[in-house]
Amino acid sequence: MGSFFTVKRLRRWSLVSGVASLALCASASLFADFSRLSQLQNKGFSISAEARLLDADTGANALLGSINPERQLSPASVTKAYLAAAALNRFGPQHRFTSQLVSSGRVENRAEGGVLRGDLVFEGGGDPGLTTENLWRLVQRLHLAGVREIDGALVVSQWRFGPVDCITTDRCDALTRVANAYSAPLSSAGVNFGSWCVNVAPAASAGEPARVGLCDSQTSLITIDNQVVTRPANSGTEISAERITDERGDVMRLTGQISTNATARDVYRGAGDAAEKTAQVLMGMLNQAGIQVRDSWRVSSTQPPSTAQRLAAVDSQPLQEILLRIMNYSNNYMADVLALDLVETPQAQLRQAGQAIESYVQHLPGHGPLTLYSGSGLTTENRTSAQGVNVMLEDMFRQSALFPSFVAAFQSPANGVMRFIRRGSATFQNNVMLKTGTLNQPFAVRAAAGYFRTAQGRWGVFSVMVNGSGSTPYLSWSEVLDPLSLDLDAMILAN
Asked: Of 166, 464, 468, 494, which cross-links 171 as Cys (Cβ 3.0–4.6 Å)?
C-alpha cells in the first residue's frame, strides 16, 4: 500500500543522532498506550479506544493500546466514516447523482419559441451537493432545447425521499425557527444544502440600514427583515440571523451592525422546507431566463411516469469529491442525504438510511454491534465501538481500488480545514489522518478515528470515543486531543 503522506521530518531528525533516536523509541515504547487519555475516566467520562498496526500479524503484537474497545458509545460525526465506506462500496468513487427536468407533455413549435404542453417536473436525484449553479445549467439547457413557455405548472418531485421526518430536537424546532444551517430539512430535491443564503454589506454612510439580498438570486424569493445598521469604520461587525416561518413563508430576520469599511458577509440559515425552497429558486430562474410558466409551483412526492420525457439533466460531482466536502467540513445535510440515497425504496427515512449502513457492516468479520439512526451522527442514539470502527477502517485499507478515495477524505491536523485539530507535536500533526465527531446535547461526545504512519513507515488505525452524561461537565476538545496526541506520538515513535 502506497504512502499518502511522509515521515520526512522524523527521518531527518533520526539521522542527526541514531543513538538518541533509539533511546527515545525505547523510552516511548514504555508509554505507548492510552494512559493519558484514560485519565478522563476519573472525571466520569466513558471511553472506548483502540489503536493497532495494520501490517503486523493478527494478535497481541498488532495491538498498541486499548480502553474498553468493545464498549458501545456514541461516535457523533465519526459516523460519517461509516457512511463514506458504505457509499464507496455501494456506488464506487466515480458515481454521479442525476437531477433532471422531465415532462409527460410535448414541446410544440421549438423553432419559433417552443411551448411545453403540460407540467415541467424537476425530478430530484438525491444529489447531496446540488447548488444554484446546477439549476442554472438545467434552465439553460431547457432554453437551448427551445422551450420558452410552460403551459402548466412547475412541479418539484421529491419521490425518492422527502419530506424526511425530523428525529432530533434541532431539526424539529427548525421547521418553524432556526438560527443555524446544519439543521436544514432533508429532501432528494434540495438545493444549496437546504439553506437560504443572505449577503449583508455596509451602506455608504453610517446610520443607514445595511444592504442585503439573496446570495444567488436578484429576485426577492423570501422576505428579509433587515435590522442591521451600518456603523462608522472600524466599529466592528456583529450579525445575528434567524429564519422563521409564518404566514409570509420563510423570513430571514437579521439584526446587529456592520462597519462602513467591512467586507460583505454571507449568512446561511436552514430553510423551512427544502423542496419548496428549490421550487422558489427554480421558478425565479425560469422567469429570469424568459421562460414563462402559466401556473404556480407545487411540490410532489409522486414519481414521474416512466413515459415522461427528459428535457434537461445535470450530474453531480463524483462521489469521491462529494465525500471530501462531507468529511472535511462534516456537512450534516450532505451526509444524511447521501445516507438516504443508500435506501432502495421510495420515501426513505433516516432510520432506514442507518440500517442500510448497518447492512454494509454485517459482512465485516469481528465488527460487532452497530446501531445508526442517521448517517450524519447528529443523533446520540448512534452506537458503535472503537474495535468496530477499526475493523471498518482496516477493511477499507485492504481495498486498493477504494482506499485512495476513502483516506483522502480524512484530515491531517497540520493541513485540515478544522482549526481546532491543529495542535500537538509535529509527529501528531504530520503522521495522523482523522475524522472527528462532536456533540454537546443531550450529553458531550468527543470522538476521533483514522489512520497514522509510524516512525518506520508502518500503517496503523485508531479510534477513540469519549462520552459524557447528564452529570458530567462540559468537555472541551483540548481535554481530549492533548492527551490523545501524546498517546499517539508515543505509539508512532515506538514503531
From this structure: 166
Give yes or no for a contact between 116 and 151, defined as CB atoms under 8 angstroms apart: yes
Distance of CA 198 to the CA centre of its chain: 21
Q: What percent of the chain has pLDDT above 90? A: 88
In the predicted structure, residue 12 carries a pLDDT above the cut 80 = no
Strand partners, 452: 432, 460
What's the burial of 218, exposed, middle or buried (CB within 10 Å: 0-12/13-18/19+)? Answer: exposed
Band (pLDDT 50/70/90 cuts) for residue 9 is very low
The amino acid at residue 209 is P
Q: Are 268 and 179 in contact (CB under 8 A)?
A: no
315-345 residue pLDDT tens: 999 999 999 999 999 999 999 999 999 999 9
Whole-model pTM: value is 0.91
Inter-residue contact 341 to 97 (CB < 8 Å): yes
Q: Which has the closest alpha carbon to 445: 435, 454, 436, 432?
A: 436
The CA-CA-CA angle for residues 268, 269, 275, to 5°, reads 110
Query: For residue range 154-212, what is the model confidence (pLDDT) as tens digits?
Result: 999 999 999 999 998 889 999 999 999 999 999 999 999 999 999 999 999 999 999 99
Cα-Cα end-to-end distance for the chain: 18
Residues 6+ apart with CB under 8 A from 283: 154, 293, 297
CA distance 373 to 350: 6
Residue 109 CB burial class (10 angstroms; 0-12, 13-18, ≥19): exposed
Residue 140 neighbours by CB distance under 10 Å:
14
Distance in angstroms (rounded) separating the CA atoms of residues 162 and 274 = 9
Please check whether residue 125 is in contact with residue 188, taking contact to mean a CB–CB distance below 8 angstroms.
Answer: yes
HSE toward the beta carbon, residue 198, CA cutoff 13 A: 30
List, in sequence order, every residue forming a beta bridge with 248; answer none if it has no partner.
none
Contact partners, residue 86, CB within 8 Å, separation at least 6: 342, 356, 357, 360, 361
Neighbours of 214 (CB within 10 A): 19
Distances (CA, A) of 112 to 81, 90, 109, 145, 231: 52, 46, 5, 12, 53
**Grid coordinates standing for 312?**
434537461
What tens digit of pLDDT does each residue of 253-294 get?
A: 999 999 999 999 999 999 999 999 999 999 999 999 999 999
